[in-house]
Amino acid sequence: MRDRDAQPIGGIARRLAGILTARGIDPAVQLTDPVEPIPALQAAQARIPARYQAAVADHPAVTAWVRAIAEAGRPGPEGAPGIAQGRSLLIVGTTGTGKTHQAYGAIRSLLLAGVRLRWKATTAADLYAELRPRPGHDGERELMDLARCPLLIIDDLGAAKNSEWTEEITMRLINRRYNEMLPTLITTNLGMADLRQHIGDRVASRLTEMSDKVILDGPDRRRALAAERRRIAAA
């Protein structure tokens, strides 16, 4: 640029302010860089149930588990850690205490920490329904895929109707993950004695050894929220 074409900084600023104002933009507003989205978290949101897409893992034992899993990850592309071997987490509590919320919150926390994460989630009832033998479906392949998945959520273990077949499926799945030391997030409404009766001694024994146990207590949060909505509506 030639000297005679140069303009005072103040003149440029005034012209820029005029352009912004003409476009409906307040030049006095301080602009900030947008927060970069996390692609893995964005992809996960489509797989997380709508009710839990903003879930936060805030229980101290759950956040400690998240840190341990993240720190144990093997470095991968661009240095991002990936899920390696690690402890599992057994979240126990009565209905409505936030077990599923904490489980999905843990997934979101791992993704926010930059962990490369291949994961699957299922309820125990859906697991058995999906694997039940039927024409044209390879249940054995599906079982092996779940058994090898780096991180698996099994929600409501012990809630589905029990049989010799479901006990065998649970044993094969848990035993494979136990042997490979793959982290598994399990939620259940049952205490350990009732869970042992429902899934069998062999599975319960492995869960006891492979898992850190978290007990959630307190009132049913769903009923408390419903009561609060009724109170507000009546006010």
Short description:
This protein has helices spanning 9-22, 39-45, 60-72, 99-112, 124-131, 139-148, 164-180, 192-199, 201-210, 221-234, and strands spanning 74-75, 81-82, 88-93, 119-123, 151-155, 184-188, 211-216. It is globular and about 80 Å long. By secondary structure, the chain is of the alpha/beta class.
> Stretches where pLDDT falls below 50 for ≥5 residues?
1-9, 30-36
Largest sheet: 5 strands, parallel
CATH superfamily: P-loop containing nucleotide triphosphate hydrolases
Total count of strands? 7
What is CATH's topology name? Answer: Rossmann fold
Largest beta sheet: strand ordering: 4-5-6-3-7
Structural class, by secondary structure, is alpha/beta
Query: Total domains, how many?
Result: 1
**Shape, please?**
globular
**Topology order in helix (H) and strand (E) letters:** HHHEEEHEHHEHEHHEH
What is the CATH domain class? Alpha Beta
Question: What kind of assembly state do the chains in view correspond to?
Answer: single chain
Number of helices: 10
Mean pLDDT: 83
